Amino acid sequence: MQPATAITIPAEMLPSDGRFGCGPSKVRDAQLDALAEAGRRLMGTSHRQPPIKQLVGSVRAGIRELFSLPDGWEVVLGNGGSTVFWDVATFGLVEQRSQHLVFGEFSQKFADATAAAPHLGQPMVVSSEPGTHPAAIAADVDTYCLTHNETSTGVAMRLTRPAGIGDALVIVDATSAAGGLAWSPSEVDVYYFAPQKSFASDGGLWIACCSPRAIARIEKINSTGRWTPASLDLKIALDNSRADQTYNTPAIATIFLLDQQLQWMLAQGGLSWCAARTAESASIIYNWAQQSAYATPFVANTAQRSHVVATIDLDGVAASDMSAVLRNNGIVDTDGYRKLGRNQLRVGMFPAVEPADVAALTRCVDYVAERLRA
Ligand SMILES: *Cc1c(COP(=O)(O)O)cnc(C)c1O
Q1: CATH number listed for the domain at residues 29-268
Q2: Which of 20, 125, 151, 298 is the Cys-Cys partner for 311 at CB 3.0 to 4.6 Å?
Q3: What is the pTM of this model?
């Protein structure tokens, strides 16, 4: 076996961009160029003044258009990313008891957040093995917590409102799915995410698309006087968002890069274009793995294989060596999710990633595997 560090992938085989992370993920050059261009006018200026409020307004309108949100839906945002939104939802969306579909690290963390909250009943957890997803069960709960794409395992679920749940809310962690996978607002009440995945921006912001029923829930909980830290208060966030602001100071560059990506997605053809593009990347990588002698898609059920995060098991090649060699050659962040503990590569295929680069990646992996196995 060649020492891993000695393997050099021929330059002509390399993808045009080597960023395949699952968040932070590839930011397109055009976004960064636009930031350099507009930066002097926007960076270092007040988020309470028109230029930045217009930027926030553009993001809110862009999201509304991308997802074809019906009248009455609102785009709410605040600081802290999706992890903080779990705490926001624990205070501002769950009335008494939630149900969580747990099928990986991220969905588990939200379940842990509501379980720890003294003001809520113990959540009902419906779980399944990593590499699969469970189905919701109609029960005595007021909020169903789904995950559109489990980034830790590469499992995506089709979003449908569970049958027989009355007027309970369906709230969806779409952190890695939003902008890369199709969904219908009729099936969902809250669709929340952060911008460092399909939206090719930076972390630290949460964005929640809220249905009229979700808005009513926010108002109702607020009216009961439940103690809520102001920075986690969804009613305060809602009021600020309506004025195209955040409660406290946001990272302006994050919002700018997000807006650039939204405008690009809309110009290319919107969500259907984005979803077709990630589907193309997914078909390239899964077809390659299926035909490979040493690589296999981790998710057995083809319908549950994510189009934005591919998890590929390796046999006879150490995935850690593979990722290390790729990194030495400028192809970064293909490492598997550590806690999953599998000999696996994980590849982000968000809309910013060129499908041709995914194809180039598979050829590079083959090239390295041949030499690692020799
Ligand atoms: C990345 C991710 C998160 C965490 O997002 P942060 O913005 O880092 O808090 C939560 N859920 C899913 C599904 C994710 O992919």
Answers
A1: 3.40.640.10
A2: 298
A3: 0.97
